[in-house]
Design a protein that fits this description.
By secondary structure, this protein is mostly helical. The protein has seven helices and no strands. The chain is rod-shaped. Helix 2 (23-44) runs antiparallel to helix 3 and helix 5 packs antiparallel against helix 7 (156-174).
């Protein structure tokens, strides 16, 4: 039974506690764990003065042990979080640590704007690469005819200028 109790408590702490536990979260977790240990401590108090009456000592120790196990079973059955001593503390923590709807909406709008901006920048970079590949792919030394320009054939000077412009644009985007 002890191993099950510990594993249940570990599962509970895994789901309740965030990965980076701040001071506030430590305090909240300490309060919840304190409830568990204080509840178990109170049930063992039946045997506090068992040494006074040696005839009843065995009975008192046994009764306290059984009540402690029963109390631990209640914690396990309710998954620790739903225990009447812990649930109000968890509810208070959730109430205090929630973000207002206005703040959440503002953060979400800003995030969506950044995603849109990032996607637009990716699209522009892809267009630059496509254009650069198209310019480099049409080699051949056209002579400047209108027909050659219409077909996308550029002179050596024009290709060189296009590469420099693409390199500048890429360097500007990296900044």
């Amino acid at each position: 039974m002890g191993r099950n109790c510990i594993s249940s408590l570990a599962k509970w702490s895994y789901f309740v506690l965030p990965q980076s536990v701040g001071e506030y979260y430590k305090k909240t977790a300490d309060q919840m764990l304190r409830v568990v240990f204080e509840t178990l401590w109170e049930t063992r108090q039946l045997a506090q003065n068992a040494h006074v009456d040696p005839e009843a000592a065995v009975f008192l120790y046994l009764e306290a042990t059984l009540k402690t196990h029963m109390q631990m079973e209640v914690f396990i059955e309710r998954g620790f979080i739903e225990h009447p001593g812990i649930f109000p503390k968890l509810t208070r923590h959730l109430f205090e640590s929630t973000v207002s709807k206005d703040s959440f909406d503002a953060l979400k709008a800003r995030f969506d704007a950044l995603v849109t901006e990032t996607n637009e920048n990716k699209r522009k970079i892809d267009q630059l690469y496509t254009r650069l590949n198209a310019l480099e792919g049409h080699g051949g030394g056209g002579g400047g005819d209108d027909d050659d320009d219409a077909a996308g054939v550029l002179s050596k000077n024009q290709r060189k200028k296009a590469r420099k412009a693409a390199a500048r644009a890429a360097a500007k985007d990296e900044e």
